[in-house]
Design a protein that fits this description.
This protein is mainly α. The chain has 11 helices and no strands. Helix 2 packs antiparallel against helix 5 and helix 7 crosses helix 9. The longest helix has 22 residues.
Length: 254
């Protein structure tokens, strides 16, 4: 479920438009706010941060807007990478609308619960972590109650990643513990509502295929494909993923 075998970024966007749109929004806001500071972005960013003081004053949109904001480059990269890795399977299994509902629903419920558990006026937060842990909550629900939707290998990966994620939640400084734990709980609770008509997902099942009609066909690009492989043509999507992983590892090690 989590092996990405799309041949290009364009193909990934075509197959998973919701995940792609969310990641593009992450990158666009990060670029305009952190890389290419534009005056108006400071104000817009400030309007989106989950400031509990402002929520107390009635600015309830701040329960939702922190999901698309991040506190720096590494924060944005890790959340975007996690979404690229774990979002596509659920987007196909749930469909676009239910995936958006589950993603934003888990993140919003995590932010609301955080507000009531820690109502301090000084508390502020940004990031998609609650929504992403909500996806983990849905996967764990499948592992426990809907085993037919997830293969054993993917179930094992989810368990390992979840354990590592929760450990890092409590030992790394500067992490919104409430968002991680409450996002996971929200996803687990939302799961039965969105998994009603879900079907198992297998990598590659949505990619283009030639139908076998029993006749012999000639593929004019056959030799070009072989030459490309011999020249070591690299899938740009994998380059992006590898770069994100390397940057992430360096961030933890240095």
């Amino acid at each position: 479920m989590f092996i990405r075998n799309e041949r290009s970024v364009k193909e990934f966007i075509q197959y998973y438009p919701v995940v792609s749109t969310i990641v593009i929004i992450h990158i666009a806001i990060w670029f305009l706010y952190d890389v290419l500071p534009i005056g108006i972005m400071d104000r817009l960013y400030s309007l989106g941060v989950g400031y509990h003081y402002e929520i107390h004053n009635g600015e309830y949109w701040r329960f939702i807007t922190p999901i698309i904001l991040h506190g720096g480059t590494m924060h944005m990269l890790f959340n975007s990478f996690s979404l690229v890795l774990f979002g596509p399977a659920l987007e196909k299994m749930l469909g676009k609308f239910k995936f958006i509902l589950a993603y934003l629903g888990a993140g919003t419920l995590a932010n609301i619960a955080t507000f009531f558990i820690n109502p301090s006026n000084a508390f502020a937060h940004v990031g998609a972590s609650g929504a992403i842990f909500g996806l983990f909550g849905i996967y764990v629900f499948m592992v426990v109650f809907r085993k037919q939707l997830i293969d054993a290998g993917s179930a094992h990966i989810i368990k390992v990643i979840l354990i590592i994620g929760l450990i890092m939640t409590f030992i790394r400084p500067g992490i919104n513990i409430y968002a991680h734990v409450l996002g996971f709980a929200a996803g687990f609770l939302i799961a039965p509502l969105v998994l009603g008509n879900a079907r198992p997902y297998y990598p590659g099942q949505y990619q283009r295929r030639y139908e076998d009609d029993g006749e012999i066909h000639f593929d004019p690009n056959r030799w070009k494909k072989r030459r490309s492989f011999r020249r070591g043509k690299i899938n740009p999507l994998w380059v992006i993923i590898v770069v994100l992983v390397v940057i992430g590892l360096l961030n933890y090690l240095l």
